[in-house]
Amino acid sequence: MTLRELRSRQFWRAMLAELLGSLVFVSAVLGSSVPGSGEAPPGPLYPALAAGMVAVALGHCFGEISGAQVNPAVTLSLLATRKLDLLRALVYVGAQCLGASLGAGALYLALPLKSTAECFVSKVPMELNAAQALGMEVLSTFQLVFTVFSVEDQRRRENVEPGNLAIGFSVSAGVLMAGRFSGGSMNPARSLGPAIITGFWENHWVYWIGPVLGAVLAAWSHEFFFAPGASRQKLVACLTCKDIEMVETASVSRSSLSTVTQTAMRAKQTNKQEHN
What we know:
Elements: H1 3-6, H2 9-33, H3 45-62, H4 72-80, H5 86-110, H6 130-158, H7 164-178, H8 188-198, H9 206-226, H10 232-239, H11 244-275
Helix pairs in contact: 2-3, 2-5, 3-7, 4-5, 4-9, 5-8, 6-7, 6-9
């Protein structure tokens, strides 16, 4: 990123989009977690529905501005695959954490009983250990980020907009899958905001290492093994900090040449059959 880009209006619009998006996302998820008067804390269903629906909405609101990442794990997975430069990634992560903290703070101030704020916190259940919760965070975040990369790849190739709903479903699925084991955070900023507001930091590392590890594994799996343009050369280029775009261009060129050759062969066979 150049100094000119850093000063541009587009860059700061993207930063504010990540801040506001994270604030809205965390507010929606935490608000759906608050029990009613005299009620037990709700299970993962309400947070799962809220997270999925607000993810779809934010994709439409901020997708064209910043990508509507609103998740440090997603941002760091883009950095790990060199789709995002280091400075922009750091600014985005800072904005996401600030937005999440503001959202958690706003919900905390709105609570009639401050003791119910404990339902905001991402924490390991007493019957499980941190390693088990870590594994569920890795798994749930893996499926989320793999979906994100698959949707973005399809958008680039087909120039369509089918994917916000798929991402929303993936968010909801992740919360439902891991909700009773780890809280189904999948988002370090979502866990950081309530931790700052409530002062509860026990096993907080689980909600950074798990989502980031799952996100990076998903990004590498998609980009270097499952994507149509995946290749060993692309993986080597990423690991050695070479220009990935040149490798992708060469891969697309070979793919296009192969398609043209196959089309020509089919046309030749058709002409031969017509003559016969």
